Amino acid sequence: GESVGLHLPTLSVQEGDNSIINCAYSNSASDYFIWYKQESGKGPQFIIDIRSNMDKRQGQRVTVLLNKTVKHLSLQIAATQPGDSAVYFCAERGNYGQNFVFGPGTRLSVLP
Amino acid sequence: GAGVSQSPSNKVTEKGKDVELRCDPISGHTALYWYRQSLGQGLEFLIYFQGNSAPDKSGLPSDRFSAERTGGSVSTLTIQRTQQEDSAVYLCASSLAGTKETQYFGPGTRLLVL
């Protein structure tokens, strides 16, 4: 069956550095991907999305890259700040219109 | 409020009791989802409502779990005869229309079954 997983369960970065969070997915038919941020005690918060007809999308301090050839998704956070500390989830949706499948999450810790 | 709201925020119950969890989606959102998140785990899909269509219940783990959505807005997730393994955070999300749209999540209900 389809699955979404993350290469690194935890990531620690220095404040001001760039962060890269990776995600592998197995369903080559997935056509839509989302990154969510979940702070402690809160629900997931939408960060950025990308459709399968794109390979890169930029937001404010965040960039999502999609490599369909190797079924890999990444989230890049520029100039990481303490407020970026959270668990980040990737999610995929198959093009058959089924519901999203979420990965287990990567915890990002920003060191002072 | 502009966001998805859920109540209660926390619920402690005894094994065997029934619980009801409530979700108020964003106004105008026709799609509503329930997920379960166990400690340190990802999101597990439970059920999906879209407008007046029959809900997608494919994620419900057992017949002790049920959900309804009245009037196309508020939804209630009911867990009957709760078990300790039901302890988790139950998250509700809504989207503008269908699974092609971004989901916006509520803060969740933390359920603890003793």
Polypeptide structure, described:
- The complex is a heterodimer of chains A (112) and B (114).
- With 112 residues, chain A is an all-beta fold.
- Chain A has strands at residues 4-5, 10-14, 19-25, 30-38, 45-51, 56-58, 62-67, 72-77, 86-94, 101-102, 106-111.
- In chain A, strand 4 (30-38) and strand 5 form a beta hairpin.
- In chain A, the strands form two sheets. In chain A, strands 2, 4, 5, 9, 10 and 11 form a six-stranded mixed β-sheet that branches. Chain A has a five-stranded antiparallel β-sheet with strand order 1-3-8-7-6, with no helix packed on it.
- Chain B has 114 residues and is mainly beta.
- Chain B contains no helices and ten strands.
- In chain B, strands 2, 4, 5, 8, 9 and 10 form a six-stranded mixed β-sheet that branches.
- The chains are: A mainly beta (112), B mainly beta (114).
- At the A-B interface, strand 4, strand 5, strand 9 and strand 10 of A face strand 5 and strand 9 of B.
Please bin the fraction of helical residues of chain A: under 10%
Low-confidence stretches of chain A: none
Largest sheet data of chain B: 6 strands, mixed
Number of strands of chain A: 11
- What share of residues are in beta strands of chain B? over 45%
Which helices and strands, and how do they pair?
The complex is a heterodimer of chains A (112) and B (114).
Chain A: E1 4-5, E2 10-14, E3 19-25, E4 30-38, E5 45-51, E6 56-58, E7 62-67, E8 72-77, E9 86-94, E10 101-102, E11 106-111
Parallel strand pairs in A: 2-11
Antiparallel strand pairs in A: 1-3, 3-8, 4-5, 4-9, 6-7, 7-8, 9-10, 9-11
Chain B: E1 5-7, E2 10-13, E3 19-24, E4 31-37, E5 43-50, E6 65-69, E7 75-79, E8 88-95, E9 104-105, E10 109-113
